[in-house]
Amino acid sequence: MKEGDFKVLYFHSTPLVNDDCSRFPTFKASKECMFPGLCVEIISLLADKLNLNLVPVVVNHRNTYEYIQNGTVYGILNYILNGTVDTIASAYLMNDYFDEKFNVSEKLFYTEKKLIGLHQKDGFSQYFGFFGSYQTTVWIAIGLSLALQCIFSVIVHRVEKELYEDKKSKWSEVIWRIVRLQLLQPQNCQSKLLSGKCSIIIFSLAQCAILMGILSSYILARLMSPEHFIPLKSLGEVLRAMDREQVYFVETLHYPLLRQTLIDVGWQQGLNMTEVLARNPIRYAKNDEEAMTMLNNNEAVMMRFDTDDFYFNGLKNCDFMTSFDAIEVLKRGFLFRKDYELLPRINKIIEQEELTITRLYSKYMQDYKTKKTCRRKGRSEIGIYPYLGLGIFLLVVNTSATFVLIFELITHNRGGCRQRKLKQ
């Protein structure tokens, strides 16, 4: 015989209250529904331990909101305040924000606040990935090695001609042969001196064959899996980028606390965020769907807890990235109206079932999170952009070569005219 009713409000909010199952809400996990929701399972555990009949009150839409501003309660929190439900199947921050109107239970679990943004692709790497694959220092090293080999080959060639009295070649032809060797297109790269032969063998083996062979594989790997730029490392870095107007924050209308958070963190970083926000204001969206659309911009950033519905929806999108380190780690608990008579018993059960709740938390924040996180294709394809960049490069080189050709023709014609005048 049940001792009474335990009225709980359920709304769609992954992973706390999932809607993956055929019935919403589904109170307990089964083979047909392995992940009904983290808070759903904890609420069912409490109801069983309290010997209460679970009475669900369902809100069948995702765009719910709850906040307190200037002492006024907004959104679904009023369901608790007016006695419609005893609690909500969601976990709330354990701070003084709710103290005036509500009581928060003992800690259920910790939650991490993280940044969400779009994977940013560098335009240079998209079009010039063939050249951007190496660091500048690698390009310098390759160039210096090639230059030293050309200089040594010219010296060896001059000595060779003096010793064997062969027909002397131009130094430009010697350099051209070494450059062709570098490009794996050798043409009569010979030497009668042992020193010349050794230098060519070492250069062709070490740089042309081994080094360039390894690096060519690296180019392919980089083109197949291009790096993403400007990772979201910390809130301080994002605020400094915000000061430079490189990024801006997106938020929904029903979360008024973001501005004060940015001002407080900015003060710790030595930034006047009031002035920064005047130049680079927060962009507000009407709901989560609009915020997700606004986030599809390289400059947009959001801040969310890792148990939020928006955060989990972002994980499904391979174009979104989240910060690795947490900005903040806070405790969460269930929310009840002031002086709720069953709260002492609920707190005692939460303490007794700490291990069970921890297992449930791991189940959703590890197994379920892995299941929902986007996985990129195992086989990647090289897009057209690197070839467009290479085409632009070839166009520039050929245009330059055309101008050089015109200059050589003019020089040659002028030289021919002078010779004809001298003969006359």
Q: What's the oligomerization state? A: single chain
Q: How large is the share of residues in beta strands?
A: 15-25%
Please tally the helical runs, counting DSSP H or I stretches of 4 or more residues: 15
Overall shape = elongated
CATH superfamily of the largest domain: Periplasmic binding protein-like II
**CATH topology call of the largest domain:** D-Maltodextrin-Binding Protein, domain 2
Largest beta-sheet characterization? 7 strands, mixed
Transmembrane segments: 138-159, 200-221, 384-410
InterPro entries: T25E4.2-like
Keywords: Membrane, Transmembrane, Transmembrane helix
Protein name: (pine wood nematode) hypothetical protein
Write up this protein:
Helices cover 49% and strands 15% of the residues. It is α/β, with parallel strands linked by helices and 424 residues long. It folds into 4 domains: 5-108 and 334-372, D-Maltodextrin-Binding Protein, domain 2; 127-224; 229-322, no CATH class; 383-423. The longest helix has 39 residues, at 385-423.
Keywords:
424 residues, alpha/beta, D-Maltodextrin-Binding Protein, domain 2, 4 domains, seven-stranded mixed beta sheet, three-stranded parallel beta sheet, 15 helices, 14 strands, elongated, membrane, transmembrane, T25E4.2-like
